[in-house]
Every structure is written in structure tokens, then in C-alpha cells.
Specification:
By secondary structure, the protein is α+β, with helices and mostly antiparallel strands. About 30% of the residues lie in helices and about 40% in strands. The chain has helices at about 25-40, 60-65, 110-124, and strands at about 5-15, 40-50, 55-60, 70-75, 80-85, 90-95, 100-105. About 25% of the residues are buried.
Length: about 120
């Protein structure tokens, strides 16, 4: 099986993301309302997908603007499916894994989801 290696600047949907004290006033209120309405926030960073894992590392700006953001690593062996969902401007890659779901948006989302799905299919 050929190795899988995808790197993308992306925004990941983080259900527990909370703005830090650096976000104040009307902006904080808007971010809090968005998070409550949608069940989380989109956080900028980088996604790297390999045959071993799907990793998301938030960028420095988002680490500064959110409380307690940590990198996310999902073993590829626990991923059950990957599919593209509609998103304005950038598509969304929805990844189902043994502990839940992880969503990220990036340019080329359709191709990312297709490559991940093909690798999953070859794995089984």
C-alpha cells in the first residue's frame, strides 16, 4: 500500500474551544454566541494525515486566543470513514473514528476525503 501523506492549513471544529481573556468586548460576545449556537468553534492550524495518524496542531494565534487548546492526534487505525461535506468557500472533511468524530475545513477537501477513504478501503 502506498504511504499516505497529506498536509493542509485547515480550520478544525473544536467543541470545547473557549476564547481566552485576549478576546474582549463585543468580539467575545459574538464568539461565545457562535460557540453556543453551533456547539464549538473553528480553530485555525495545520492538519497532517499519514498512514499512522491524523494530527491537528492549532496555530500560535489561535493558541493565544483560546483557552487550553492542545494538539489532536487520532490514530489512523481508529478511523472508520472520511467524507466531504459542503462548506462555503472551503469544503469540510468529516472523519468518523472509534471515539467520535472530527471535522476540519480546507481547500481541496474533496480530494483529501477521497484519498483518506481510498486508504481506508485498501487497509480493510
Amino acid at each position: 500500500m502506498p504511504p499516505l501523506h497529506i498536509e493542509k492549513f485547515a480550520n478544525a471544529f473544536i467543541p470545547l474551544a473557549v476564547p481566552s481573556a485576549h478576546v474582549a468586548g463585543a468580539a467575545r460576545g459574538a464568539v461565545n454566541r457562535y460557540g453556543e449556537k453551533h456547539g464549538g468553534l473553528w480553530v485555525g492550524g495545520k492538519v497532517v494525515v499519514t498512514s499512522e495518524a491524523l494530527d491537528f496542531v492549532p496555530n500560535r494565534m489561535n493558541v493565544a486566543l483560546h483557552q487550553g487548546l492542545e494538539p489532536i492526534s487520532i490514530p489512523f487505525s481508529s478511523i472508520r470513514s472520511a467524507r466531504r461535506e459542503f462548506g462555503w468557500v472551503t469544503g469540510i472533511v468529516a472523519v468518523e473514528h472509534s471515539h467520535g468524530a472530527f471535522r476540519f475545513r480546507c481547500f481541496g477537501a474533496k480530494r483529501v476525503a477521497e484519498e483518506m477513504a481510498a486508504h481506508l478501503h485498501r487497509r480493510s
